[in-house]
């Protein structure tokens, strides 16, 4: 594993820890293989949330809450299918 891959994995696990993502959801969120585009989207989502919501508690809780914009699913569920969709949604709120 390259240094870049190690860092990406470390950041991914730290985000999941802050969002209180279960191991099962973590596997779904990560996908089948190391995907830097996917991890990059998650990192951007994390940064956007902490920009939009000044409270770290609220920013880290937001991904688990149901959202009408994702057909009642949580952003975390939407990220499992399409993290770019969640990133674009948050970009509109910056």
From TrEMBL:
<protein>
    <submittedName>
        <fullName>Uncharacterized protein</fullName>
    </submittedName>
</protein>
<feature type="region of interest" description="Disordered">
    <location>
        <begin position="63"/>
        <end position="82"/>
    </location>
</feature>
